[in-house]
Amino acid sequence: MNTETIERWERAVAAQPGNDLARFSLAKALFDAGRFADALAHFEQALGRKPEWMVVQILLGRCHLSLGDRAAARGAFRRGLELAVAQRHEGPQAELEQLLADLGAE
User: Fold this and answer.
1) pLDDT tens by residue, the chain, 106 residues
2) In Å, how far are 30, 32, 33, 86 from 5, measured between CA atoms?
3) Which of 17, 23, 61, 83 could be joined to 54 by an S-S link, Cβ 3.0–4.6 Å?
4) How distant, in Å, are the alpha carbons of 1, 12, 23, 56, 95 from that of 81?
């Protein structure tokens, strides 16, 4: 993801801080650029507004994992798994089960 894309979404979020899609898009662009700490903050804000947003929960866990915080990643993936089961998303459920298995026991 290039800097231009990130800047475009930063402008969108600055113009409309309550726009969940713009905030997600900024967080995803930051994530794709490897800026995990920056992405993390935006994913957390998105979840604060929409705690049932399963995809954001998964990406939050992936940020934590990329930053080396296995305990936080595990917690995020567990919450994501709860959402996947509740929302009947079999693909993400399998992905999260595998991520948790890869992380192993606490």
Assistant:
1) 589 999 999 999 999 999 999 999 999 999 999 999 999 999 999 999 999 999 999 999 999 999 999 999 999 999 999 999 999 999 999 999 999 999 986 6
2) 9, 11, 10, 33
3) 83
4) 28, 30, 23, 12, 9
CATH 1.10.1140.10 applies to domain 3-103: no
Q: Say how far apart CA 42 and CA 29 lie, in whole Å.
A: 11
Nearby residues of 62 by Cβ (< 8 Å), 6 or more positions away? 31, 73
pTM greater than 0.85 (yes/no): yes
Tokens at 82, concatenated: 């709860």
Enumerate the domain spans of the chain: 3-103
What is the rounded distance in angstroms from the CA atom of residue 98 to the CA atom of residue 31? 21
Long-range contacts made by residues 11-17, C-beta under 8 angstroms, separation at least 24?
A: 13/42
- The rounded distance, in Å, linking the Cα atoms of 82 and 1 is 30
